[in-house]
What we know:
The structure holds 2 protein chains of 2 kinds.
Chain A: H1 2-14, H2 18-52, E1 57-58, E2 68-70, E3 74-75
Chain B: E1 2-3, E2 8-17, E3 22-32, E4 36-37, E5 44-45, E6 52-59, E7 62-70, E8 73-75, E9 80-86, E10 99-104, H1 106-117, E11 125-128, E12 134-144, H2 154-157, E13 162-166, H3 175-186, E14 190-194, H4 199-202, E15 214-221, H5 225-231, E16 241-247, E17 254-256, E18 262-264, H6 265-274, H7 280-284, E19 290-294, E20 299-306, E21 309-314, H8 329-337, E22 344-348, E23 351-355, H9 363-366, H10 377-401, H11 408-428, E24 436-446, E25 451-461, E26 466-472, E27 478-479, E28 502-508, E29 513-520, E30 526-535, E31 541-547, E32 550-556, E33 563-570, E34 573-580, E35 585-591, E36 597-598, H12 601-609, H13 624-645, E37 650-657, E38 665-667, E39 673-685, E40 693-696, E41 704-706, H14 709-712, E42 715-718, E43 722-725, E44 730-736, E45 741-749, E46 752-753, H15 756-768, E47 773-777, E48 780-787, E49 792-796, E50 799-802, E51 815-824, H16 832-835, E52 839-843, E53 845-847, E54 850-857
Parallel strand pairs in B: 3-28, 9-12, 9-13, 13-14, 14-21, 24-39, 47-52
Antiparallel strand pairs in B: 1-4, 2-3, 2-6, 6-7, 10-12, 11-12, 15-16, 17-18, 19-20, 20-21, 22-23, 24-25, 25-30, 26-29, 26-38, 27-30, 28-29, 31-32, 32-35, 33-34, 33-37, 34-36, 37-39, 40-54, 41-44, 42-43, 43-53, 44-51, 45-50, 45-54, 46-53, 48-49, 48-51
Helix pairs in contact in B: 5-6, 10-11, 12-13
Amino acid sequence: xxxxxNSIKSxxxxxxxxxxxxxxxxxxxxxxxxxxxxxxxxxxxxxxxSSNSKAELEMEVNxxxxxxAKLGAYTP
Amino acid sequence: MVNxxxxxxxxxxxxxMIDSQNKTVxxxxxxxxxxxxxxxxxxxxxxxxxxxxIIKAVEKGKVLKxxxxxxxxxxxxDKKLIGVLSSDNAAYGFLNGIKVKGLVDSQYAEKxxxxxxxxxxxxxxxxxxxxxxxxxEAECILVPVEASEVPDDINVMYGxxxxxxxxxxxxxxxxxxxxxxxxxVGDGGTLILGTGLDWKKVYAPLPLGLKKFEVTGTKSVTPxxxxxxxxxADFSDDAKLxxxxxxxxxEYLKSTTADGTTEAAGTSTASKAATEETxxxxxxxxxxxxxxxxxxxxxxxxxxVLNSGLIVFLSFDPAMEPLAxxxxxxxxxxxxxxxxxANGFREEGSGYYYVRSNTDSAxxxxxxxxxxxxxxxxxxxITIAVYIVIIGPLMYILLKRKDRRDLNWxxxxxxxxxxxxxxxxxxxxxxxxTAVLNTASIIxxxxxxxxxxxxxxxxxxxxxxxxxxxxxxxxSNIEFDVAASDSRTYTSYSNGNEPEAxxxxxxxxxxxxxxxxxxxxxxxxxxxxxxxxxxxxxKLIESVLIKDGKFKAVIKNTTQYELLDAxxxxxxxxxxxGDILPDQEKTIEAAFDSQSVYKSFQAYLNAMYGRSYYxxxxxxxxDYREKLRKRNAVDTLLYNKYNSIKNKSGIGLYALxxxxxxxxxxxxxxxxxxxxxxxxFYSTDLIFxxxxxxxxxxxxxxxxxxxxxxxxxxxxxDGDDGIEIEQLxxxxxxxxxxxxxxxxxxxxxxxxxxxxxxxxxxxxxxANNSGVQLKLLQNRYEYYLYNSSNDKWEKxxxxxxxxxxxxxxxxxxxxxxxxxxxxxMADRDSEDLYKDSSLYVQVERLALPELQLKGVTK
Lengths: 76, 858
């Protein structure tokens, strides 16, 4: 009995189902590779974008009335 | 912000130091397309004297740009900030640095002195005058303002003490800017309006509330002598002044000077000002409508009081000739500005914080949430008792019978677990699953404006420890103090550095506004305020009749609010009116001498809701907690309203209400559990029909205590009830009679009383020990009535009726004066009094004398 069970299992993995197993494994690797190939360039593009089209922000600040403000009060 | 790169979605942040250890962040979200330029305005407070401010542009938590801005000057709060809005701002340049005399709170001045002594700043000179009152010579800083710079945020406007407007087209101001200007004046600002030939441009477009002077035309005159006296400098001979003419709009009363001579108020102030010996008395009394220069017919400078602020109407344009080149212009402005009121600031630790003058806050009410979610204590008690019976005797007997006492190891923990789970689930329903909002509002009905002004104080309670986020619409008029803190200390290291500040809150200025508070304790009340205005038509009190010592009023509730526990006041008479639902009409009748008419606020509250305090051995009324809550609500929300009308011979209608005021406020992105306690207030003048004989019972015209040097220390007001006498002295009272009232006869009644608190204490003591007796110590008094026709005090009895020549006792100001002379004090220090422990020794107090009138309305 034990032997036969083993044989079924081995059949499942390495018998006639072996091809199916390989197919599944291959598809998984393929999907993974495609996914990695999509994500990595995206990341690479993103990294590239932040260095190339970086947020180049300049600020000019004016506060109070020509720099004059009163303590304790709100000021623009 | 100039974006030279990719599109950015982020926020601008300004870090504001609240004190030396805490900071808050003001943030404004922005969206900047690629290669674009945008301007953002954020109004933020300056609390500490540090000149540096950090400004950041942040995108998704990442700082894109960090900048430090340095203010060129931070003005200490005791300097006055004058804004100038004029076509020729340069004409006012001389006002920059001008020094103005004014009165300040002496305690505040003392603090300032200490700061100056330590070299913190040396802006102004504080001179302490006689009798502890203090005058301060404050320096003025001039800020020229363009039309676009006129604040549309009231908080920014509060920074100005004075705003001068002349030769400027006020129609160019936006509706929001005009509204802010009006509110700012009402809250304590001083608006100086220069008019002259340009009056149509300056004056006409202003909001109605700011236009107290009615302009009828213009004319060219020789500069009046009063103006020359006021400033101490003459004009050239051919000088002509273009002025507006018109009506001042108030009754201009002449004031009496110290030497008894009568002269116009304006001239009196002017002569004092010209000599630059401005006395404290002149300054103290500046908060009234007055003609500063000129008279009622030819008013050159007129001053109006608008709530807590002032409007100074100049009938000329001070930036035009002959004033622009006049040698007396500096003295003129110095004397004029001396009559402006400074805004209030408080100083704590290392910061300065603006104090609003008209906030009616009721945070003591909102900090206590009504307890309607009490766990079912009886049920829990029974459950625990059943549990004890099961776990103890029952289990013991059962298991012993079966001889399986070893099962105790399992049965006892299992029974405990079941019982705990049961109690937990029963109590679970009483837990708050969301934050709680507790509001207390005062709804003031204004017949003139046909509006209901709602002032709301709110307590926000977080149902968890950690961050608290409030979200509300920009239009909901919600205000909070980002600097609110229970304790504030100033910390600095020996090397002068300050510790790294923690961010305690963040205000995101978007629509809706988000106010986040970090690291908030569970159930800690956070205070915010809100206000709104609703339409109201008609009048609540339809008619009033006072006849033969009886009172009758018809009340019709034309509001959408239920008037619960309503009551009326007329003078010091309190009459309960019960509940009046919307659209309901009710007639209230009472005799003034009946038991149901209470004679003071405390007596009324005690009768309706019970006392505020009971000693441990006295019987507490049923439902005491709920009654006390109502009592506190009436006391906190309505006492000030009563005080505002009690001396004005008006009728007040007061009520409680529990309807939701409908502020759409979300807490932690959820609608909170809301509790609302509101108080409704309505008042109307007591108008007597012309030509009819009127009988005014006692308790309607109330006396005012005249404080003088003699009685100041020895006669203290005891709430609304009377006077506490400490030593021999004269106590004077003044009654102001109704306008246009011809007095025919009157009667006076003097008496003494024991305060309610003393009565209660005696009752409590007697309940404990029946042998206790009251030992009342009585003083001896003499009573006088002032005869204004011969300027003599006439001695009268404690009950006095003046049936003839009553008008001889009424002076030019339409008032009647009485005096109580304390001629002998009861011996309070005798040791014998306190030997007998069964004696409860108390000194009687002097009741306010009661005046009853009869006369005809002219």
